[in-house]
Design goal:
27% strand, 11 helices, alpha+beta, six-stranded antiparallel β-barrel
């Protein structure tokens, strides 16, 4: 060893140092130069090379699987109505070029195709009612799209591609006779299938697991090439900071803490998300969607190399499936006010999460919870903060049952209850609503914010024994003419108490008229000619 040339010793020392620094760097820098004899590789080095090659191949295959489903989303304000120029004698209207609306549209983020019919999952902020939306695929095809549904609490939205409305790649190449907004002659058939991404399960993720981020809507729209980066999961269940806007809903404190993600749902990754990341795909090494990327990494005070994604776990899959159907996403509610308070220590538990108030008639009240109780677990999961309880409960749909473990005066107890509906902040967009009955629509009685619910209770409108809330009344319907107005409560239909919309619809199916409804307070007709329902009292 002492007789070896210094250059040989240095080369071995260099390679040894690089091996400690990282396998990928070792392979790059220790590869023999052209013309030099390649030294014999040890079995360990060969195994390292094979492992890296397998990892690289897995990343390439995952990208190839997922990236055809990643799209660019752009939108433009809807054009104002204009008079038909032909009535003014414009004989040359068909010859003058017109700018295609999708060319003027501004990119607002990325999205991921989640259904072969052309449904695209994206962030809530990418959807804007009243504007024209466009989807550009990696095949450089641009389609018109509409909002299927958008949910402010989850920060998610689903757009529907109009496969029959394919716009030209570049407006100048279109025929001068082709008017803006009309499909081209090479539009795909209505049964066009889009490359939907497979779903994974974010619940199975662990820190250190490899993930791949795919996005860059600007590159998708310009050349059909999304950008990809890879890294690991660095943290789980992170909270979006106050002030981070994911839904344009500032909330009562004007801090935008109105989403589930402000309660602690976000996945953190060191995969680079620097290309207008909102709405891109975060996938595992099988190319399965495990998260939808956000732009939160750019928020001041957060780790600049970090990226954040909304998880695609079982709870969020429920949300996505509801949005795909165009329906409102509903969230669970206990009916308590919570706070942190020093109470008698409980060995092995240590929770200081205390019930400060229980609203009458809510699931918590019916289950026997009382002020002063200390909540320990929700559905077997330890909770130590108000955010923990809100997240665990609101991820459940209304009417779902859950177990609440609590202590009262040092005695541990567990109760089972069916959650009611939370009145979530923000403007939701739905395209499929339950059918109206005689012009009125019904919701859970708790579908009011805390202040409104408290007012209804104090006014005696809310029946703690059980009732449902009138949310909409068509002005030309029988209910409106009878004096029914939004904000009223119905306790019985045909003599049967109703406590959920499902119970109301079942009872109303056998009811003959509005006379079968019993309201918690007498109806007040809008005018003297409007006759109250006979059953109101």
């Amino acid at each position: 060893m002492a007789n070896q040339p210094a250059s040989s010793r240095n080369k071995r020392l260099f390679c040894r140092t690089i091996r400690r620094a990282g396998v990928l760097v070792l392979i790059t820098l220790c590869t023999p130069l052209a013309g030099l004899a390649e030294p014999a590789r040890s079995p360990a080095a060969t195994a390292e090379n094979a492992a890296v090659a397998d990892l690289q191949r897995a990343i390439q295959e995952a990208i190839a699987t997922a990236e055809p489903a990643v799209v660019a989303i752009s939108r433009v304000p809807a054009p104002p109505p204009v008079a038909d120029e032909r009535v003014l004698g414009d004989a040359f209207i068909q010859l003058r070029p017109a700018e295609s609306p999708h060319d003027a549209a501004q990119i607002v983020g990325a999205g991921v195709i989640i259904d072969s019919s052309g449904l695209v999952l994206t962030q809530y902020l990418a959807a804007s009612p009243g504007e024209q939306h466009f989807i550009t695929t990696t095949k450089r095809q641009t389609f018109a799209a509409t909002i299927r549904a958008a949910d402010a609490r989850s920060g998610l939205a689903v757009l529907a591609i109009n496969a029959a409305n394919l716009f030209p790649l570049n407006a100048p190449s279109a025929s001068p006779l082709q008017r803006a907004g009309k499909p081209t002659n090479d539009s795909p058939p209505p049964d066009t299938k889009f490359p939907a991404i497979p779903f994974g399960d974010a619940n199975s993720l662990r820190k250190g697991q490899f993930v791949i981020a795919i996005g860059n809507p600007y590159a998708i729209k310009s050349d059909g090439q999304p950008s990809a980066s890879w890294g690991i999961i660095t943290n789980l269940a992170q909270r979006a900071p106050s002030g981070s806007n994911l839904n344009d809903s500032p909330g009562p404190n004007n801090d935008f803490r109105t989403t589930l993600h402000h309660l602690g749902t976000l996945m953190q990754t060191d995969a680079k998300l620097g290309w207008s990341a909102g709405g891109g795909a975060l996938v595992n090494l099988r190319g399965e969607l495990i998260g939808l990327t956000t732009t939160l990494a750019t928020i001041a005070g957060h780790e600049q190399p970090a990226g954040y994604a909304m998880p695609m776990n079982a709870a969020f899959r429920r949300i996505v499936e509801t949005l795909k159907e165009g329906r409102e996403v509903e969230y669970g509610m206990l009916g308590v006010g919570l706070g942190m308070q020093q109470v008698a220590a409980i060995p092995g538990v240590g929770s200081r999460l205390t019930v400060m108030q229980v609203y009458p008639g809510t699931p918590a009240a019916k289950a026997g919870l009382a002020a002063g109780d200390s909540i320990l677990q929700v559905d077997g999961k330890l909770v130590t903060s108000v955010d923990d309880v809100q997240l665990a409960v609101s991820l459940l749909p209304p009417a779902a049952t859950t177990n609440i473990s609590y202590s009262r005066n040092g005695v541990l107890s567990t109760t089972t209850l069916a959650v009611a509906k939370l009145a979530a902040a923000g403007h939701n967009i739905v395209t499929v609503r339950p059918p109206a009955w005689h012009g009125l629509r019904i919701d859970y009685a708790t579908a009011l914010n805390a202040q409104e619910l408290a007012q209804a209770i104090s006014a005696g409108s809310y029946d703690p024994q059980g009732c449902v809330l009138v949310t909409d009344v068509a002005k030309d319907g029988d209910a409106w003419k009878a004096g029914v107005r939004p904000g009223m409560f119905v306790s019985h239909v045909g003599g049967k108490r109703v406590t959920t919309p499902a119970e109301f619809r079942e009872a109303a199916a056998n009811a003959s008229s509005l006379d079968d409804l019993r309201f918690t307070k007498p109806l007040s007709p809008a005018n003297e000619k409007a006759k109250p329902a006979a059953g109101a009292r």
